[in-house]
TrEMBL record, chain A:
<keyword id="KW-1133">Transmembrane helix</keyword>
<feature type="transmembrane region" description="Helical">
    <location>
        <begin position="6"/>
        <end position="23"/>
    </location>
</feature>
<keyword id="KW-0812">Transmembrane</keyword>
<protein>
    <submittedName>
        <fullName>Cation:proton antiporter</fullName>
    </submittedName>
</protein>
<feature type="transmembrane region" description="Helical">
    <location>
        <begin position="30"/>
        <end position="49"/>
    </location>
</feature>
<comment type="similarity">
    <text>Belongs to the CPA3 antiporters (TC 2.A.63) subunit E family.</text>
</comment>
<dbReference type="GO" id="GO:0008324">
    <property type="term" value="F:monoatomic cation transmembrane transporter activity"/>
</dbReference>
<keyword id="KW-0472">Membrane</keyword>
<dbReference type="InterPro" id="IPR002758">
    <property type="entry name" value="Cation_antiport_E"/>
</dbReference>
Automatic annotation (TrEMBL), chain B:
<dbReference type="GO" id="GO:0015385">
    <property type="term" value="F:sodium:proton antiporter activity"/>
</dbReference>
<feature type="transmembrane region" description="Helical">
    <location>
        <begin position="6"/>
        <end position="31"/>
    </location>
</feature>
<feature type="transmembrane region" description="Helical">
    <location>
        <begin position="43"/>
        <end position="65"/>
    </location>
</feature>
<dbReference type="Pfam" id="PF03334">
    <property type="entry name" value="PhaG_MnhG_YufB"/>
</dbReference>
<keyword id="KW-1133">Transmembrane helix</keyword>
<protein>
    <submittedName>
        <fullName>Cation:proton antiporter</fullName>
    </submittedName>
</protein>
<feature type="transmembrane region" description="Helical">
    <location>
        <begin position="71"/>
        <end position="89"/>
    </location>
</feature>
<dbReference type="InterPro" id="IPR005133">
    <property type="entry name" value="PhaG_MnhG_YufB"/>
</dbReference>
<keyword id="KW-0812">Transmembrane</keyword>
Length: 163, 134
């Protein structure tokens, strides 16, 4: 019964929260409308989301987001230096296949998005069996270290979040 | 507005503009489409981020309002930037790369862009399974 009314509780919460942020100033009327949206939107789109992703502790998600934002800042500066100062002939772009331990589609999507957002790497494709990501590196004199960073820094944490 | 507020906002705007400029310059300077793809997808994240923080600071110092719209802009940007990057990369792979030129995901396996057996993926199978059992 609860499942039918609230197929995706987290999605409901996010939809309601996004509506409140869009309104940009608190009013009881908007809270009511946010709750209505939070009930209607997940119920109406439930056929497209047959599975509920299992998500771990919120503290881990906050920690993950903080790490990613910090890495974006750090790596943006690194990419800016490559663009501005590195001579073109010293640039070492490469393709890097990343074997995945993650299996849930949601976790792989988050990992691919993280790889693209952190500067210097873009995720370009998924293997047919869903067990590897194709990543393009802007400047990787040592591709093994990039692979190691993706595996230990992001994938290990995502494995704990999506169980 | 206090002098401190003005300095903070000005510094943030200069940082945002600077990274935007570097992203644009990267488009001009980097040698091929795959490396060019890196410059704008990145500059967007930090450059736009700095401008958004400047916008929040302006609302706060000038009008005393805590504005939340900027969080939403950042959220939607973080959701859409990887998708556009992926689409451009895949289109480029279709047009200019052959499967032999790319490292294979595993011996005998293939990337989704070039293969035709996506239906055999365990991810698709996992999605199909409960529907079958119902």
């Amino acid at each position: 019964m609860i499942r039918r009314i609230l197929p995706h509780p987290v999605l409901s919460l996010v939809v309601a929260l996004v509506w409140l942020l869009l309104v940009n100033r608190f009013a009881w009327g908007s809270l009511v409308f946010a709750l209505i949206l939070g009930l209607v939107v997940p119920a109406a789109t439930a056929p497209y989301w047959p599975h509920r992703a299992r998500i771990g502790s919120p503290a881990k998600i906050v920690a993950y987001v903080a790490i990613v934002i910090w890495d974006i800042v750090k790596a943006n500066i690194a990419v800016a230096r490559i663009v501005l100062f590195l001579p073109k002939r010293d640039l070492r772009p490469c393709w890097l296949p990343v074997p995945l331990d993650l299996t849930s589609p949601e976790a792989i999507t988050v990992l691919a998005g993280t790889i693209t957002l952190t500067p210097g790497t873009v995720s370009c494709d998924l293997s047919e069996d869903g067990r590897a990501l194709l990543v393009h590196c802007l400047h990787a004199p040592d591709p093994a270290s990039v692979l190691d960073e993706i595996k230990t820094r992001y994938e290990a944490r995502l494995k704990e979040i999506f169980r | 507005m206090s002098a401190l507020g003005e300095i903070v906002i000005a510094v943030l705007l200069v940082i945002g503009g600077g990274f935007g400029l570097v992203g644009g310059w990267g488009l001009v300077r980097l040698p091929d489409p795959m490396t060019r793809l890196h410059a704008p997808t990145k500059a967007a994240t930090l450059g736009v981020g700095a401008v958004l923080v400047a916008s929040m600071a302006t609302m706060w110092f000038r009008f005393g309002i805590l504005s939340w719209h900027e969080f939403l802009i950042a959220l939607f940007l973080f959701l859409t930037a990887p998708v556009t990057g992926l689409f451009i990369a895949k289109a480029h792979m279709h047009l200019s790369w052959k499967r032999e030129e790319l490292p294979p995901p595993a011996p005998g396996a293939d990337w989704a862009t070039y293969g035709d057996s996506a239906a055999e993926s365990p991810m698709v199978a996992a999605l199909e399974e409960p529907r079958r059992s119902e």
